[in-house]
Protein backbone atom coordinates (compact mmCIF):
# COMPACT_ATOMS: atom_id res chain seq x y z
CA UNK A 1 0.00 0.00 0.00
CA UNK A 2 1.18 3.52 -0.69
CA UNK A 3 0.37 5.94 2.09
CA UNK A 4 0.31 9.73 2.13
CA UNK A 5 3.10 12.27 2.55
CA UNK A 6 2.90 14.94 5.27
CA UNK A 7 5.62 17.49 4.71
CA UNK A 8 6.66 19.93 7.44
CA UNK A 9 8.88 22.82 6.47
CA UNK A 10 10.15 26.01 8.12
CA UNK A 11 13.33 27.87 8.91
CA UNK A 12 15.61 26.02 11.32
CA UNK A 13 14.49 26.68 14.92
CA UNK A 14 10.79 27.30 14.14
CA UNK A 15 9.72 24.10 15.89
CA UNK A 16 9.24 21.47 13.16
CA UNK A 17 11.07 18.70 14.99
CA UNK A 18 9.15 19.35 18.23
CA UNK A 19 5.80 19.24 16.41
CA UNK A 20 6.72 16.21 14.31
CA UNK A 21 7.87 14.25 17.39
CA UNK A 22 4.56 15.02 19.09
CA UNK A 23 2.59 13.79 16.06
CA UNK A 24 4.60 10.56 15.88
CA UNK A 25 3.66 9.86 19.50
CA UNK A 26 0.01 10.71 18.87
CA UNK A 27 -0.67 8.68 15.71
CA UNK A 28 0.52 5.09 15.33
CA UNK A 29 -0.06 5.09 11.56
CA UNK A 30 2.59 7.81 10.97
CA UNK A 31 6.32 7.26 10.54
CA UNK A 32 9.22 9.67 10.12
CA UNK A 33 11.24 9.81 6.92
CA UNK A 34 14.82 9.66 8.17
CA UNK A 35 16.87 11.86 5.87
CA UNK A 36 20.50 11.41 4.93
CA UNK A 37 22.82 14.21 6.05
CA UNK A 38 26.51 15.03 6.01
CA UNK A 39 26.38 17.35 9.02
CA UNK A 40 27.91 16.35 12.36
CA UNK A 41 25.70 14.39 14.73
CA UNK A 42 24.53 16.34 17.80
CA UNK A 43 26.38 14.17 20.28
CA UNK A 44 24.05 13.72 23.24
CA UNK A 45 20.70 13.99 21.51
CA UNK A 46 20.91 12.33 18.08
CA UNK A 47 21.36 8.78 16.85
CA UNK A 48 22.44 7.49 13.48
CA UNK A 49 19.49 5.74 11.80
CA UNK A 50 16.97 7.49 14.04
CA UNK A 51 17.35 11.23 13.52
CA UNK A 52 19.38 11.02 10.31
CA UNK A 53 21.46 8.59 8.35
CA UNK A 54 24.74 10.41 8.92
CA UNK A 55 26.87 9.96 5.80
CA UNK A 56 30.29 11.14 4.70
CA UNK A 57 30.25 13.63 1.86
CA UNK A 58 31.76 10.95 -0.40
CA UNK A 59 28.96 8.49 0.35
CA UNK A 60 26.32 11.16 -0.07
CA UNK A 61 27.67 12.16 -3.48
CA UNK A 62 27.84 8.51 -4.56
CA UNK A 63 24.13 8.19 -3.68
CA UNK A 64 23.33 11.31 -5.72
CA UNK A 65 25.15 9.78 -8.70
CA UNK A 66 23.31 6.50 -8.27
CA UNK A 67 19.91 8.26 -8.30
CA UNK A 68 19.04 7.21 -4.75
CA UNK A 69 17.44 10.51 -3.70
CA UNK A 70 13.95 11.90 -4.35
CA UNK A 71 15.44 15.31 -3.54
CA UNK A 72 18.57 16.71 -1.93
CA UNK A 73 19.95 20.17 -1.07
CA UNK A 74 23.19 21.68 0.16
CA UNK A 75 21.30 23.49 2.93
CA UNK A 76 24.32 25.09 4.60
CA UNK A 77 27.74 25.45 2.98
CA UNK A 78 29.23 21.98 2.73
CA UNK A 79 26.28 20.29 4.49
CA UNK A 80 24.04 18.13 2.33
CA UNK A 81 20.61 16.78 3.25
CA UNK A 82 18.35 14.50 1.21
CA UNK A 83 15.32 12.21 1.11
CA UNK A 84 16.11 8.64 0.09
CA UNK A 85 13.68 6.78 -2.19
CA UNK A 86 14.39 3.59 -0.21
CA UNK A 87 13.28 5.28 3.03
CA UNK A 88 9.84 6.25 1.74
CA UNK A 89 9.36 2.81 0.17
CA UNK A 90 10.35 1.14 3.46
CA UNK A 91 7.75 3.12 5.44
CA UNK A 92 4.96 2.73 2.90
CA UNK A 93 5.64 -1.01 2.86
CA UNK A 94 4.93 -0.94 6.62
CA UNK A 95 1.53 0.62 5.84
CA UNK A 96 2.44 4.03 7.31
CA UNK A 97 1.83 7.59 6.20
CA UNK A 98 5.19 9.32 5.97
CA UNK A 99 6.10 12.57 7.78
CA UNK A 100 8.93 14.75 6.47
CA UNK A 101 10.95 17.54 8.13
CA UNK A 102 12.75 19.39 5.34
CA UNK A 103 13.76 22.92 4.34
CA UNK A 104 11.63 24.90 1.90
CA UNK A 105 13.12 23.86 -1.46
CA UNK A 106 13.04 20.19 -0.49
CA UNK A 107 9.40 20.59 0.56
CA UNK A 108 8.45 22.01 -2.85
CA UNK A 109 10.32 19.21 -4.63
CA UNK A 110 8.63 16.54 -2.52
CA UNK A 111 5.22 18.09 -3.26
CA UNK A 112 5.99 18.02 -6.98
CA UNK A 113 7.03 14.37 -6.69
CA UNK A 114 4.08 13.13 -4.59
CA UNK A 115 1.36 15.43 -6.00
CA UNK A 116 -2.12 14.97 -4.51
CA UNK A 117 -0.86 12.40 -2.02
CA UNK A 118 1.06 15.16 -0.19
CA UNK A 119 0.28 18.10 2.07
CA UNK A 120 2.86 20.82 2.80
CA UNK A 121 2.69 22.57 6.18
CA UNK A 122 4.83 25.69 6.75
CA UNK A 123 5.64 26.23 10.43
CA UNK A 124 5.89 29.95 11.05
CA UNK A 125 7.69 31.51 13.97
CA UNK A 126 6.11 34.72 15.37
CA UNK A 127 9.26 36.84 14.77
CA UNK A 128 12.97 36.68 13.92
CA UNK A 129 13.68 37.52 17.57
CA UNK A 130 11.72 34.48 18.73
CA UNK A 131 13.55 32.35 16.18
CA UNK A 132 16.92 33.53 17.46
CA UNK A 133 15.90 32.83 21.05
CA UNK A 134 14.68 29.32 20.17
CA UNK A 135 17.84 28.46 18.28
CA UNK A 136 20.03 29.78 21.11
CA UNK A 137 17.85 28.06 23.70
CA UNK A 138 18.21 24.73 21.90
CA UNK A 139 21.92 24.97 22.66
CA UNK A 140 22.99 23.04 19.56
CA UNK A 141 24.61 25.72 17.42
CA UNK A 142 28.03 27.36 17.32
CA UNK A 143 28.23 31.12 16.66
CA UNK A 144 28.95 30.31 13.02
CA UNK A 145 26.11 27.84 12.44
CA UNK A 146 23.69 30.10 14.36
CA UNK A 147 24.42 32.99 12.04
CA UNK A 148 24.19 30.74 8.93
CA UNK A 149 20.77 29.54 10.15
CA UNK A 150 19.47 33.05 10.87
CA UNK A 151 20.71 34.27 7.51
CA UNK A 152 18.99 31.43 5.68
CA UNK A 153 15.80 31.90 7.76
CA UNK A 154 15.19 35.31 6.13
CA UNK A 155 15.23 33.57 2.74
CA UNK A 156 13.07 30.65 3.88
CA UNK A 157 10.40 33.00 5.33
CA UNK A 158 9.76 34.36 1.82
CA UNK A 159 8.50 30.92 0.75
CA UNK A 160 5.53 30.90 3.14
CA UNK A 161 2.78 31.36 0.53
CA UNK A 162 4.01 28.45 -1.60
CA UNK A 163 2.69 25.82 0.81
CA UNK A 164 -0.76 24.34 1.43
CA UNK A 165 -1.09 25.50 5.07
CA UNK A 166 0.69 27.84 7.49
CA UNK A 167 0.85 26.82 11.13
CA UNK A 168 1.94 29.69 13.39
CA UNK A 169 3.95 28.11 16.20
CA UNK A 170 3.40 30.53 19.05
CA UNK A 171 1.93 28.59 21.95
CA UNK A 172 3.25 25.05 21.64
CA UNK A 173 0.16 23.26 23.01
CA UNK A 174 -2.04 25.13 20.50
CA UNK A 175 0.36 24.12 17.72
CA UNK A 176 0.17 20.47 18.76
CA UNK A 177 -3.66 20.59 18.60
CA UNK A 178 -3.67 22.35 15.20
CA UNK A 179 -1.14 19.91 13.78
CA UNK A 180 -3.17 16.93 15.03
CA UNK A 181 -6.34 18.33 13.39
CA UNK A 182 -4.59 18.97 10.08
CA UNK A 183 -3.10 15.50 9.95
CA UNK A 184 -6.32 13.76 10.99
CA UNK A 185 -8.29 15.59 8.30
CA UNK A 186 -5.69 14.91 5.61
CA UNK A 187 -5.29 11.21 6.26
CA UNK A 188 -9.06 10.70 6.43
CA UNK A 189 -9.72 12.62 3.18
P1 LIG B 1 13.31 22.95 14.04
O1 LIG B 1 13.14 21.46 13.97
O2 LIG B 1 12.31 23.68 13.20
O3 LIG B 1 14.72 23.38 13.77
P2 LIG B 1 12.95 22.58 16.93
O4 LIG B 1 11.74 21.73 17.01
O5 LIG B 1 14.28 21.94 17.18
O6 LIG B 1 12.99 23.40 15.54
O7 LIG B 1 12.71 23.79 17.97
C1 LIG B 1 13.74 24.76 18.22
C2 LIG B 1 13.75 25.08 19.73
O8 LIG B 1 12.57 25.86 20.03
C3 LIG B 1 13.71 23.85 20.62
O9 LIG B 1 14.56 24.07 21.74
C4 LIG B 1 12.23 23.74 21.03
O10 LIG B 1 12.09 23.15 22.31
C5 LIG B 1 11.79 25.22 21.04
N1 LIG B 1 10.38 25.43 20.69
C6 LIG B 1 9.63 24.79 19.76
N2 LIG B 1 8.39 25.29 19.70
C7 LIG B 1 8.32 26.30 20.60
C8 LIG B 1 7.28 27.21 21.02
N3 LIG B 1 6.06 27.20 20.48
N4 LIG B 1 7.59 28.11 21.97
C9 LIG B 1 8.83 28.15 22.52
N5 LIG B 1 9.85 27.31 22.19
C10 LIG B 1 9.61 26.40 21.24
P1 LIG C 1 19.14 20.42 11.06
O1 LIG C 1 20.61 20.53 10.79
O2 LIG C 1 18.64 21.53 11.98
O3 LIG C 1 18.72 19.03 11.52
O4 LIG C 1 18.38 20.65 9.68
C1 LIG C 1 18.67 21.78 8.90
C2 LIG C 1 17.60 21.95 7.84
O5 LIG C 1 17.68 20.86 6.90
C3 LIG C 1 16.19 21.92 8.41
O6 LIG C 1 15.44 22.97 7.80
C4 LIG C 1 15.69 20.56 8.00
O7 LIG C 1 14.28 20.55 7.87
C5 LIG C 1 16.37 20.40 6.66
N1 LIG C 1 16.39 18.99 6.19
C6 LIG C 1 16.48 17.86 6.93
N2 LIG C 1 16.42 16.78 6.14
C7 LIG C 1 16.28 17.23 4.88
C8 LIG C 1 16.12 16.58 3.60
O8 LIG C 1 16.11 15.35 3.48
N3 LIG C 1 16.00 17.38 2.52
C9 LIG C 1 16.00 18.73 2.60
N4 LIG C 1 15.84 19.42 1.47
N5 LIG C 1 16.12 19.39 3.77
C10 LIG C 1 16.26 18.64 4.90
Walk me through the topology.
Elements: E1 5-9, H1 16-26, E2 30-32, E3 35-37, E4 52-54, H2 57-65, E5 69-76, E6 79-84, H3 85-93, E7 97-102, H4 104-114, E8 118-124, H5 128-138, H6 143-157, E9 165-168, H7 172-188
Parallel strand pairs: 1-7, 1-8, 2-7, 3-4, 8-9
Antiparallel strand pairs: 3-6, 5-6
Helix pairs in contact: 1-7, 5-6
Bound molecules: adenosine-5'-diphosphate (ADP) and guanosine-5'-monophosphate.
Guanosine-5'-monophosphate binds at residues 12, 16, 35, 39, 71, 73, 75, 81-83, 101-103, 106.
Describe the overall structure.
The protein has helices at residues 16-26, 57-65, 85-93, 104-114, 128-138, 143-157, 172-188, and strands spanning 5-9, 30-32, 35-37, 52-54, 69-76, 79-84, 97-102, 118-124, 165-168. The protein is α/β, with parallel strands linked by helices and 189 residues long. A hairpin with a 2-residue loop joins β5 and β6. The mean pLDDT is 96. It is globular and about 40 Å long. The strands form two sheets. A five-stranded parallel beta sheet has the order 2-7-1-8-9, with helices on both faces. It is built from seven helices and nine strands.
The SSE order reads EHEEEHEEHEHEHHEH
What proportion strand?
15-25%
Low-confidence stretches: none
Radius of gyration: 16 Å
Residues in helices, as a percent range: 40-55%
Count every beta strand, where a strand is a DSSP E run of 2 or more residues.
9
Q: Note the total helix count.
A: 7
Bound molecules: adenosine-5'-diphosphate, guanosine-5'-monophosphate
Describe the main β-sheet briefly. 5 strands, parallel
Distance between the termini: 16 Å
Major sheet: arrangement of strands? 2-7-1-8-9
